[in-house]
Design a protein that fits this description.
It contains 15 helices and three strands. With about 400 residues, it is mainly alpha-helical. A hairpin with a 5-residue loop joins strand 1 and strand 2. Helix 10 packs antiparallel against helix 15 and helix 13 packs antiparallel against helix 14.
């Protein structure tokens, strides 16, 4: 027996923003904007409102740059400030969207505003753009809408994102400095090997004497660089690109890399503290917003930025859901220091878990600040010493034959 195929859902109609000008029944000039699929729909809509349209044009947005997490953080702070000042939500979106320096952000905010105007809640409008608004962001906004304290939750969310931005920026600066020096050292060494040492080699040929062992070694390395420079740079560039692509696509590799990052001497401790700081601050923000503990842990693992802690958070969540208290579940994971566990235990016993988690995150963030400053001051002399040995060694190796010739002539 033949069965009827289920009807396909109609595809969502793409809408555009149109700017219009016209006159009402009294002859008064009016202008505004309207989202619709086409000009004819705009014309029909305005005609039903008694407006005689004189001009319609599609609003065009300039191509902007990529929307960064910093842009979203700034928007959150602006929106929270305006709502606390009593500015209506839609007007606040309009002000921030039209005044933003990045046209891409402006278009995003005006699209969200249009969704809210058509009846969607703010959290539902945000959920349509998961690349820019993660589950934690949307859940907090939804909690604020349900409790009627949206401006308070937005302020807390803005503070949370600003803290996370500052923490991530410090970690990046701590890692960027030595990495940039290593790259510069390699480039300078490659230039010396490819262009400078071959010139010395031609001079040494005219000496007609045996060269010292360090000079012979450096010249041999230089010959290898000159002949295979394309393979050296290609393999390094290709290796870095392949690693980045493999890291993005392979969850197994991400877990292995994140696990190794926590064990790296010196840097591993900084990364671990920053991860726990993000973990505790995220949980504090969610819990203080009234989100139940088990639901809060859904967003905490991903916000930590480390797959080791993300997978451990899932185990903690399952244990808490079956009746285990948070302190015991965290202790079982063996990823948190005694200080963190003791503070959480005090928070649970006193009923002030969110406050204790905030204090833990602030303490760890301060420790990360001190560690980054100490690393920066420690790395500078170490890097200078390494560069001095490397460049100085090359210079000495090249000048040894000249010194030897001078001694013979003398």
């Amino acid at each position: 027996m033949a069965t009827a195929k289920p009807a396909r859902k109609p595809a969502a109609t793409k809408e555009f923003t149109f700017l219009w000008e016209g006159k009402n029944k009294d002859g008064k000039d009016l202008r505004g904007e309207l989202r619709a699929p086409s000009e004819s729909v705009v014309n029909a809509t305005l005609r039903r409102q008694g407006i005689r349209v004189t001009k319609i044009s599609k609003q065009r947005f300039k191509s902007g740059g990529k929307i960064t997490d910093k842009d979203i953080t700034l928007f959150t702070r602006q929106l929270a400030t305006m709502m606390k000042a009593g500015v209506p939500l839609l007007q606040a979106f309009d002000i921030v969207g039209r005044g933003h320096s990045n046209p891409s952000v402006g278009k995003l905010l005006l699209d969200i505003k249009a969704d809210v105007e058509t009846g969607s809640s703010l959290s539902q409008a945000f959920r349509k753009f998961p690349l820019h608004f993660d589950a934690l962001y949307c859940n907090l906004v939804a909690a604020g809408e349900q409790a009627g304290i949206l401006e308070t939750l937005l302020d807390r969310l803005a503070t949370y994102k600003e803290k996370m931005q500052a923490l991530i920026s410090k970690i990046k600066s701590a890692l960027f400095y030595p990495l940039s020096i290593i790259i510069m050292a390699f480039v300078i060494t490659a230039v010396i090997m490819i262009f400078v040492i071959p010139a010395f080699k031609e001079v040494f040929k005219s000496f007609g004497a045996d060269l010292p062992a360090p000079t012979v070694i450096v010249i041999a390395i230089s010959d290898y660089f000159v002949e295979y420079w394309w393979a050296i740079f290609g393999s390094i560039g290709g290796g870095v690109y392949a690693f980045i692509q493999a890291y993005k696509r392979s969850e197994t590799m991400q877990i292995a890399f994140d696990r190794y990052a926590l064990r790296v001497p010196v840097f591993g401790d900084v990364i671990r503290k920053s991860t726990v700081a993000r973990w505790t601050r995220t949980l504090a923000t969610m819990f203080a917003a009234g989100v139940p503990l088990v639901e809060s842990l859904d967003s905490v693992g991903g916000a930590s930025g480390n797959y080791v802690y993300k997978s451990a958070t899932k185990v903690i969540q399952s244990e808490v859901a079956t009746g285990t208290n948070l302190t015991t579940a965290m202790q079982n994971s063996k990823l948190f220091d005694n200080m963190v566990i003791q503070m959480v235990a005090i928070g649970e016993e006193s009923g002030a878990l969110d406050s204790m988690l905030e204090k833990v995150s602030s303490f760890l963030e301060a420790e990360v600040d001190d560690a980054v400053e100490a690393l920066s001051s420690l790395m500078e002399p170490m890097i200078m010493a390494v560069l001095g040995v490397l460049i100085g060694g090359l210079v000495i190796a090249m000048y040894l034959p000249i010194f030897k010739l001078g001694a013979v002539v003398g």
